[in-house]
């Protein structure tokens, strides 16, 4: 019910969402004592960035001829399911059916599902033909054309069998901690009663990005396993140590989102990335990696997607009313590694770090619900027409002078070429330097008012691009 209620409010609220704030991930540090000296070289430490300025700027240009329906990608398929072989061994544990809508006891220490009782749900004991949907078939496109509903099979993840029509909580341990202090990372799984694709949702790969955690909670706890076709696997807090310390990074100060697909004998970050990728990500057909911006910039809710990849381009069409910004991604990102492995993946940017932002969260939940509907995984009671993502090509406009930035425009504003977006004021000389828009478009991201150095990316201007495949 809650889910449907959300939907009745969607169109109005999403308009409000577009005005909500978010911040990309650039950190400016170490300004030397007096930055009045204009010619003195200022030191700007650009920490590892997220799906932000650099990644967008360095992207390979979007190809105009992308036709998602035509070209077949030669993507490697994700590791195939091991259901059948698992089923034969019969050695694995069966996950208890946990109603995710029920509040868990705070003393529920055993995240690892080791109960053998498959609860009361019916077991689809008919292992008919393989009803798995593999990527490249129905999953990557938006082909919800009345799929013949087939009963699902059980799903094995983390050595645990999840029966069809059940949901459960599992635990993933990257195996890097001191054994006695091991702290498993919770993984929520809903295995639908009907066959379908596997959608994975990851949040808080950067431990200080909170909106995604709540987006995953709401999305997963609204699902009814009996009505779901396919599976949804959610890891609300991938970087648990970072989350507990309010930090973007891992305990070794590395950015986990630069280490995928990882390696079993590399750095701490490599090992965690490898464990996540091999144990969970490879089991997904589709992945939405949820992030926020970081300090001092604000974003419209938006997807970052490699629009040169036809599967990804088609996938973006299921997200309702999202800005979609082309970005080919950087090496080491979960998104890039997953796409490389044949898993259709986008990054969802929702708001700014360290905050819980209702509008951003609603926009994220509604867009994921739209996606699942488009993929034939759920059916909504109220549908307001086809999803309407908006595609943008984009450019960052940088401050040419150091000083204090004062914006004249708001996030989401439509601007025209040459229009003054804001000023940088030199607090000592009183010089005012206007920053002008380079094109006609829309402000899809911007810095909040702050002290900036020359070169600081201040405004992200999106120009509407063609819808792929049209
Ligand atoms: Zn992030």
TrEMBL record:
Residue ranges, annotated region (Disordered): 32-145
Where does this protein have compositionally biased stretches of type Basic and acidic residues? 55-67, 99-113
Q: Residue ranges under compositional bias (Polar residues)?
A: 68-82
**InterPro entries in the record, alphabetically?**
AstE_AspA_cat (IPR055438), N-alpha-Ac-DABA_deacetylase (IPR053138)
Where the record annotates domain Succinylglutamate desuccinylase/Aspartoacylase catalytic, the positions are 195-369
Q: Does the keyword Transferase apply?
A: no
Segments crossing the lipid bilayer = none
Organism, by scientific name, is Marinobacter albus
Q: Does the keyword Metal-binding apply?
A: yes
Return the Pfam families for the record. AstE_AspA_cat
Necessary cofactors: Zn(2+)
**Gene3D superfamilies assigned to the protein according to its UniProt record, in alphabetical order:** Zn peptidases
Residues of the signal peptide: 1-29
Q: Name the keywords, alphabetized.
A: Hydrolase, Metal-binding, Signal, Zinc
Q: Note the PANTHER family from the entry.
A: BLL3975 PROTEIN, SUCCINYLGLUTAMATE DESUCCINYLASE_ASPARTOACYLASE FAMILY PROTEIN
Task: Identify this protein by name.
Answer: Succinylglutamate desuccinylase/aspartoacylase family protein
């Amino acid at each position: 019910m809650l889910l449907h209620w959300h939907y009745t409010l969607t169109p109005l609220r999403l308009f409000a969402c577009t005005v909500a704030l978010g911040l990309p991930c650039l950190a400016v540090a170490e300004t030397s004592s007096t930055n009045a000296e204009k010619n003195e070289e200022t030191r700007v430490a650009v920490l590892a960035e997220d799906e932000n300025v650099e990644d967008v700027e360095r992207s390979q240009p979007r190809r105009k001829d992308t036709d998602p329906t035509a070209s077949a990608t030669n993507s490697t398929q994700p590791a195939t399911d091991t259901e059948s072989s698992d089923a034969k061994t019969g050695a694995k544990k069966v996950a208890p059916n946990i109603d995710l809508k029920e509040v868990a006891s705070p003393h529920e220490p055993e995240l690892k599902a080791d109960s053998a009782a498959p609860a009361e749900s019916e077991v689809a004991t008919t292992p008919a033909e393989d009803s798995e949907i593999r990527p490249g078939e129905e999953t990557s496109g938006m082909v919800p054309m009345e799929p013949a509903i087939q009963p699902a099979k059980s799903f094995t993840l983390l050595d645990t069998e999840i029966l069809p029509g059940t949901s459960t909580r599992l635990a993933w341990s990257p195996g890097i901690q001191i054994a006695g202090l091991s702290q498993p990372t919770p993984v929520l799984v809903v295995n639908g009663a009907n066959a379908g694709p596997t959608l994975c949702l990851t949040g808080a790969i950067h431990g200080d990005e909170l909106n995604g955690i709540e987006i995953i909670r709401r999305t997963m706890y609204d699902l009814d396993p009996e009505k779901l076709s396919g599976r949804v696997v959610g890891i609300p807090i991938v970087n648990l140590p970072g989350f507990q310390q309010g930090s973007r990074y891992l305990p070794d100060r590395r950015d986990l989102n630069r280490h995928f697909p990882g390696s079993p004998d590399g750095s701490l970050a490599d090992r965690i990335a490898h464990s996540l990728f091999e144990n969970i990500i490879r089991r997904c057909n589709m992945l939405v990696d949820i992030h926020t911006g970081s300090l001092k910039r604000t974003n419209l809710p938006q997807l970052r997607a490699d629009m040169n990849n036809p599967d990804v381009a088609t996938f973006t069409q299921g997200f309702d009313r999202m800005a979609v910004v082309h970005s080919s991604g950087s090496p080491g990102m979960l998104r890039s590694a997953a796409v490389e492995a044949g898993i259709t993946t986008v990054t969802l940017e929702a708001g700014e770090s360290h905050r819980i932002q209702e509008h951003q969260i609603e926009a994220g939940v509604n867009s994921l619900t739209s996606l699942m509907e488009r993929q034939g995984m759920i059916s909504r009671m109220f549908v307001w027409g086809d999803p309407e993502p908006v595609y943008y090509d984009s450019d960052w406009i940088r401050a040419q002078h150091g000083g204090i930035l004062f914006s004249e425009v708001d996030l989401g504003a439509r601007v025209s070429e040459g229009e003054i977006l804001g000023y940088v004021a030199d607090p000592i000389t009183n010089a005012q330097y206007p920053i002008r828009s380079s094109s006609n478009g829309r402000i899809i991201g911007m810095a909040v008012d702050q002290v900036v150095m020359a070169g600081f990316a201040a405004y992200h201007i999106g120009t509407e691009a063609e819808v792929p495949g049209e």
